[in-house]
Amino acid sequence: MFIVLEGGDGAGKTTQVTLLSLWFDDLGLSYVSTREPGGTAVGEAIREIVLAGPEMDMPAETELMLILGARAAFVRDVVRPALADGKLVIADRFSLSTMAYQGYGRGLDLDQVKRTVTIATRGLTPDLYIVLDLPADEGEDRQSREAESPDRIEAEGRSFRDTVREAYLHLAATEPDVTVVSAMGTPEEVQGRIREELVARFPATFTDSEMIEPGGAG
Asked: Which residue from 16, 35, 1 is spatially nearest to 131, judged by alpha carbons?
């Protein structure tokens, strides 16, 4: 099974992947936890370029091709081998990000973006995308409270963030296997919503009897 957490900057994807990993441990699941772009040596190197500081002037097409280059390695070296071994894969971002950020956010032709994504993934799609939905201003506030310096994409500003959020909501309504979960509230509250969604969709893997409250004893 391949599950991906998506959403705008500050939505808490990394935190939620970590909490899901703890839950998977409690359930005794065999899994791989990873992120994108990244997850491989070449992917991490590309990530540093893509998420460089705001001073890096990069054409939207260059950004797209770099991300897809990282994704090709990610699919070949991480996702497909894990799935072939019968493992669950939980990832922080995948192709839906490309459509939201480079398609809608950067204004690239969405059909062309989809075609290039298919080349990079060789047609691999997740079993489920979970979009963590958060107003852009709340995402900015969270990052400010954490005193994080914005990377090149995060520094694009409120209008860009709003566009990306709207893109995710549109994609959730039009693309298969995409669901939206509110990212408002505490990390534990958000985690509870994600777990409920997984139990409802995949009861054979995540059963009600094995549900564990976030932060509770395993």
From this structure: 16
Cα–Cα distance measured from residue 212 to residue 20, given in angstroms and rounded to the nearest whole number: 11
Is residue 163 domain-resident?
A: yes
Q: Which residue has the tokens 């914005």?
A: 150
Which CATH number characterizes residue 46's domain?
3.40.50.300
The answer, yes or no, to whether residue 172 has pLDDT greater than 50, is yes
Domain count, the chain: 1
Q: Residue 115: exposed, middle, or buried by beta-carbon count in 10 A (0-12, 13-18, 19+)? A: exposed
Residue 217 lies in a domain: no
Spatial separation of the C-alpha atoms in residues 21 and 32, rounded to whole Å:
9
Write the pLDDT tens digit of every residue in 37-64. Answer: 999 999 999 999 999 877 888 999 999 9
β-pairing verdict for 128-133 and 31-35: unpaired
pTM (2 d.p.): 0.91
Which H helix or E strand runs over 211?
none
- Residue 205's domain comprises 2-210
Helices (H), the chain: 13-27, 41-50, 60-74, 80-84, 95-97, 110-121, 136-145, 158-174, 187-201
